[in-house]
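Section 5.1 Outputs to date
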Amino acid sequence: MIFGFMCFEDFIKWYSEIGKLKVFWAKIVRSVDLLGEENGLTLINVKWIVRKKVKEAILAIVERRQKILKAMELFSKHGDATRILVVPENLTVNLNLVNARSILYFWKIDGKTLEPDKNVRIEVCREWSEDELEIFRSIHKKSWGFFVPPRPEDHVVILGYLNDVQVAMAYLNIHNFNIDYGIHVVKAYWRRRIGTKLLVEILKLAKTMNAHNVSVVRIFRSIRGTSSDIRA
């Protein structure tokens, strides 16, 4: 089982949707193949479509510290393929060997969260107008500085209101239950557990869709992580 709970077929579906984010370790997928699996290490070959060309990557998903060196040895057998090492958060890796870094979280649907701001009102949007897109744009820009629009075929949009003002939002991918691009809160409202309220409601919503887990991906702005990376 990958990540301790995901069969390989489910991983392909989940990863293919993550590829739409076009992050350094997941891009538009052409194929995903299992190369090998042993206790504590899963090796996967991925072919991406990047600028109309096929690029190859090797993912080594490691669960135990002693398997990291084994993964490195296996990487060396795959030439110029991009090498992606996935390890639990508590396993340290020599960051001098790393070109890019990300963090991936999974929440169990019935898992505990911090106490949210109960004053936040939630609205779920399955369709949206151009005017509503402008609201989404405003929240994104006031949170992280730029805007990525939702994909109507993939996303449900969760909006958070405080005193009838839209202050937070998130996109839940209905195909793999990833919170695409994360939860965004207008900067003036940070550290009030408004994002926690959105997370609680996303978990409830995903449960109605028969999900077992919800994931989120964050790409670090620097290898060692900025203060915003650590805070998130």
